[in-house]
Amino acid sequence: MSDLAQAFVEAIRSVIGCEEAALHEPLLEGNELAYLTECVDTNYVSSVGPFVTRFEEMICSYTGSERAVAVSNGTAALHVALQLAGVRPGDEVLMPSFTFAATANAVTYCGAAPHFVDIEPRTLGVDSVALDAWLRSSTYSRGGELYNRSTGRRISAVVPMHAFGQPCEITEIVAVGDEFGICVVEDAAESLGSWYAERHTGTFGLLGILSFNGNKVVTTGGGGAILTNEDQLGDAAKHLTTTAKIAHPWEFVHDQVGYNYRMPNINAALGCAQMERLPEFVDSKRSLFVRYATAFSHVPGVTLLGEAPRRRSNYWLQTVLLDEEVQSERNTILSASQAAGLGCRPAWRPMHQLQHFRTCPSAPLPVTEALAQRVINIPSSARL
Ligand SMILES: *Cc1c(COP(=O)(O)O)cnc(C)c1O
Hints:
With 384 residues, the chain is of the alpha+beta class. It contains eleven helices and 16 strands. Strands 1, 2, 3, 4, 5, 6, 7, 10 and 11 form a nine-stranded mixed beta sheet that branches. A hairpin with a 5-residue loop joins strand 5 (145-148) and strand 6. The model has no long low-confidence stretch (mean pLDDT 97). Residues 73-75, 99-100, 102-103, 161, 187, 189-190, 211, 213, 224 line the site of pyridoxal-5'-phosphate (PLP).
């Protein structure tokens, strides 16, 4: 084990106060079991039941979103949000290459192509200045729509993502979207509990999405939500994710091709119990950051990613950045951590480097390529 890898493992252990820890695990110590029992006792275990509405109301009141539609997972939420934003087959959708595969997959489900843009180092989110410059130089507008100069395809939306819970340059990105006439769909899958200038992430764009997968801040087992402040879009999201069935006492009439993306009542029951604890989860993750920051300040060559000005992060995953001089030690650190029983992970392989997205249109990605190699996420559960 190198000195750095050893110091890395010791810094984590000094904070977590135990030998081993997963990267992220749920905390199910509130009303989870009581609410699940209620589902079983009342026979409401599937797609109808009172917890779904209650969960949606809890999301609205916490985030300040006018509407929230609970769905089966975050990827499904993105798929439908993109459709509602007007993304059509043959379009291109701007998004960071530095993201989880779901962002690019959902764009592909719409028959559109991801068009990758670069991130900036302070938040690891889309660089609004680079985005603006890229759109100026590589697109043109015609009939109120934006087109890619080199492919001739329409660009219909941009999907910024709040990486590891750090709010990105969202107001600036919305301004760029407005200027070029494209919709913003926020991938806030990782940032429930994160705020930019007193406003919750996922509520800045025309639509936003959350994920409640097992590794996220709040879990429903599997689940997601579509956020929007437009009632019409909220209604459309509910309709499209519930098979597009027209309400009627007995007739089965559907007015378009819909999706069965409903969140079952048992998942929503779990979600209600989790939402009750969310403020506590965020507080404990924020204090974990402070403790890690102190411990890692004694480790040369590494920095903990903190929140940028005017932001309040949920610190979903604590993020260590390796200096360029020590980035060659990344795998040594990862294998030492794994051997020590600590859940440490590198960032995702950038999307433009995956075989099936290799030919997608792309802006220059120097920051993505430099930083993706230098990120390590360390144990981040709320119980720590
Ligand atoms: C978790 C996640 C999603 C959605 O994931 P699901 O597992 O489908 O709920 C989308 N985007 C990002 C960036 C994520 O981290």
